[in-house]
Amino acid sequence: MLEQIEGSKAMAKVIGLCRPQVVCAYPITPQTHIVEGLGELVRTGDVQNCEFINVESEFAALSVAIGASAAGARAYTATASQGLLFMAEAVYNAAGLGLPIVMTLGNRAIGAPINIWNDHSDAMALRESGWLQLFAETNQEAADLHIIAFRLAEQLSVPVMVCVDGFILTHAMERIDIPDQAMVDKYLPPYEPVQVLDPEDPISIGAMVGPDAFTEVRYLQYYKQQTSFRLIEELSREFKREFGRESGGLLRNYEMADVETVVVAMGSVNGTIKDVIDEMRSEGLSIGLVSLVTFRPFPTRALQQALTQAKDVIVIDKSLDTGMGGPLASNIALALRDLAHAPKMHSVIVGLGGRPVTKAALHRVFRQAMIQPWEGSHFLDLNDRVIAREIHRRGKARRSGPAAENILKILESEREAAIIPTETRP
Amino acid sequence: MNEMQKLKFYQKGTLTVGNRLVDEASRNVQASLDRSNSLTCGHRACQGCGEALGARYAIDAAMRASNRNLIAVNATGCLEVFTTPYPETSWQMPWMHSLFGNAAAVATGVAAAMRVTGKPATRVVAQGGDGGTTDIGFGCLSGMFERNDDVLYICYDNEGYMNTGVQRSSATPPTARTATTPPLGKETGNVFGTGKFVPKIAVAHEIPYVATASVADLHDLEAKITKAMSMHGARYIQINVPCPLGWGAASHDTIRLARLAIETGLFPIFEAEHGRITHVRKIRSQVPVVEYLKLQRRFAHLFKGGVEDPRVARMQAIADRHIAEYGLLEPVAGAA
User: Fold this and answer.
1) Is residue B334's pLDDT more than 60?
2) What SS3 class is residue B198?
3) Helices B103-116 and B138-147, packing angle to 10 deg
4) B115 and A CB contact within 8 Å
5) Do the domains A2-243 and A251-379 sit in the same CATH topology, yes or no?
């Protein structure tokens, strides 16, 4: 049924339709509305047979989910940013134990400096934790991906993280099709664990593993992910058959027929990019888009197929590895390396800490990639003047002070200078 | 009951009542042929390990109380490592280890799963050492208490991080030498703290049941586990388990040290329900702490060259304070 609804509330409704049995709630902006929404559905009885547990930290949230999942219950939690890092040890543990927990990540920057707005730093920080990571482009897909995620997680016995851009998606009111219970039940059968704590059939879970078997245990996790690409595509096709719309899968091509320049991006920024591509194509420019849905496992072969004809590939990263550059760009570079005619890759860092990614800026950077490409990472809309002033200031004094506060002071002084004419200033 | 069983569990030369001397109904779970042997033989605990002994009695008693319908969650630590070197396990029951600091939360999840999957009769215990309980797992433990989740948490308290090579935990008593205390202060030994006593903090959470127990009194230990298992909600039992390796004690002195910890007043034995102390185990006559300290190399620096360090008085003061606080020496008023 179509509803005009906030993204988080829609996700809560759809997660509720997935019949979670244990939901662990701990507040962190911007995911809080999701667990609030689920709490309300449990209270009203719209979600039945569900334990809604208020925990004392994110570490406990995922730990409770780990216990519940190992004991045979369908377990769900949500987090963001610092919360994901606070539970990091349990994130790896859930994957290592092969527990099919589904967790929403309301993508948010990681401090310091503390920042509540959107980027992908949190998801990227734990990209090697062994979880599958799916990125939603729209709120419809954010809702839909949870249905797919439970099915995928339980089929593989691997945890799945549904990555949803904080505020841009979680807090946006949109028209969303909420499926009915029968459709979800048909797509998502009850949880049948591959391992379970059961007094009737006692097993030990979480043994100490030494050098004699650790590699094999880890290899099997790798093998499972490397052989899951077809399943991820099949589940997306089946979803389309049952629900009548495209959601999930490995990646989606947009205007990719015989294009020379291809943009690769994840998450909600793809909406803006599509508008820019439409406008550039109407001007006769040859540009298309690959919207990456599945980041882990990384769909190397699917990307190679999509990019094999491209001359230039522009990779949009919403996070930054300060010692390397864009994490997505690093991954794409590895995928391109083995192509017969490897395209040139151009890395762009955008939207850090919630900075708006405007069409105008994308127009500029896409054109620049075509005519005057750059080395390394390009930072979209970087305020070069402020950077230069701060670097200059640092050079003058050892005790130059905290960077974030200095930048804010410089910005404030620039704003003042813009408002008050020079001659009237004291 | 066969002759072998009677002999095996008769504890000679101790103050503990041997099974042979009591009627069949009062004999302990461990003396019974139908005990579950949940923590079975073949594990790799050190000789004289107090934790292995405590865990064996505690879990078998909990198994009997739950009609063998029990799931155990284990924090990282000695108990986890010595019982489950892959691919072997000593646990003859459903058992899970996740992390060092989350046993209480994982147990909460297991208990929740039992309710929603239609198995309300299946009970849950969580267990860990003092490091996993009083330090790194304390947040999850307090959260579990505060929510009153249906979990019995058992802490095997050996007063330090023994699995990693005897480092200081918040439960390490003052003056004790550990691998990480030499850099602190001018003299060897834990300079600060009073040995964080989590049972008292558990009582402050006003949870249904809190108890302390000791491997020196296994009847009492089993009785407390059984009582805890008869209740629902958050329950906490801390068992004093001497560690021959970490304490620098003879492995045959484990029970003796556990008993001295009680009789000196250093480890008070009590029960509390809903925030109030309901029962205290009295001491017949207080033993000076010196007798307890001298058996352990971790306190050897207090007696160097035959001279008693003034810090011994600090330990005696802790024991005296416990005796006054819990009324350990007062005459028993009415029925216990």
Assistant:
1) no
2) helix
3) 30
4) yes
5) yes
Q: Does B113 touch chain A (CB under 8 A)?
A: yes
Of the candidates B81, B95, B40, B58, which has an alpha carbon nearest to the alpha carbon of residue B223?
Answer: B58
Check if B40 contacts A (Cβ < 8 Å): no
Which of B102, B127, B140, B142 best probes binding to A when mutated, by most A CB atoms within 10 angstroms? B102
Distance (Å, rounded) from C-alpha A243 to C-alpha A179?
A: 8
Q: Is A60 on the interface with B (CB under 8 A)?
A: yes
- Quote the pLDDT of residue B10: 43
What is the CATH number assigned to the segment(s) A251-379? Answer: 3.40.50.920
* Nearest CA-CA partner of A63 in A7, A28, A101, A8: A101
Among the partner-chain residues B86, B98, B105, the one whose CB lies closest to the CB of A55 is B105
- Euclidean distance between CA atoms A391 and A386, whole angstroms: 9
Question: Which residues from chain B sit within 8 angstroms of residue A208, using beta carbons?
Answer: 80-81, 84-86
Partner-chain contact B147 A213, CB within 8 Å:
no
Cβ–Cβ contacts within 10 Å for residue A180, how many? 9
Return the pLDDT at A418. Answer: 86
SS3 A193: coil
Is this prediction's ipTM beyond 0.90? yes
Helix orientation angle between A269-282 and A359-371, rounded to the nearest 10 degrees:
60
Residues of chain A where predicted confidence (pLDDT) is lower than 50: none
| Domain A2-243 is found in CATH 3.40.50.300 | no
Residue A280 Cα distances to A283, A349, A379, B194, angstroms: 5, 21, 21, 72
Between β-strands A2-6 and A173-177, what pairing exists: parallel, antiparallel or unpaired?
antiparallel
Mutation to test the B interface, candidates A63, A92, A196, A212, most B Cβ within 10 Å = A63
CA distance A204 to chain B (A): 5
For residue A265, the surrounding DSSP H or E stretch is strand A261-266
Give yes or no for A256 touching B (CB within 8 A). no
Which is nearest to A75 in space by CA: A107, A42, A51, A111? Answer: A51
Domain ranges in chain A are: 2-243, 251-379, 384-424
Phi and psi, residue A162, nearest 5°:
-100, 110
In chain B, the residue whose alpha carbon lies closest to the alpha carbon of A60 is B105
Restricting to A residues 172-201, those with a Cβ less than 8 Å away from any Cβ of B are: 197-199, 201
From the CB of residue B185, how many other CB atoms can be counted at a distance below 10 Å?
A: 11
Which CATH code for domain B32-326? Answer: 3.40.50.970
A93 Cβ under 8 Å from any chain B Cβ: yes
The candidate with the shortest Cα–Cα distance to A157, out of A212, A194, A122, is A194
- For residues B293 and B299, the answer to whether their CB atoms sit within 8 Å is yes
| pLDDT at residue B7, as a whole number | 41
Ramachandran bin of B32, using left for φ above 0, alpha for ψ from -120 to 50, beta for the remaining angles: beta
Closest by Cβ to A63, choosing from B80, B91, B106:
B106
Tell me, yes or no, if B70 comes closer than 8 A to chain A by beta carbon.
yes
Partner-chain contact B113 A53, CB within 8 Å: no
User: C-alpha angle with apex A121: A118 to A127, nearest 5 degrees?
Assistant: 135
Shortest alpha-carbon distance between residue B154 and chain A (Å): 17
pLDDT of residue B200: 97
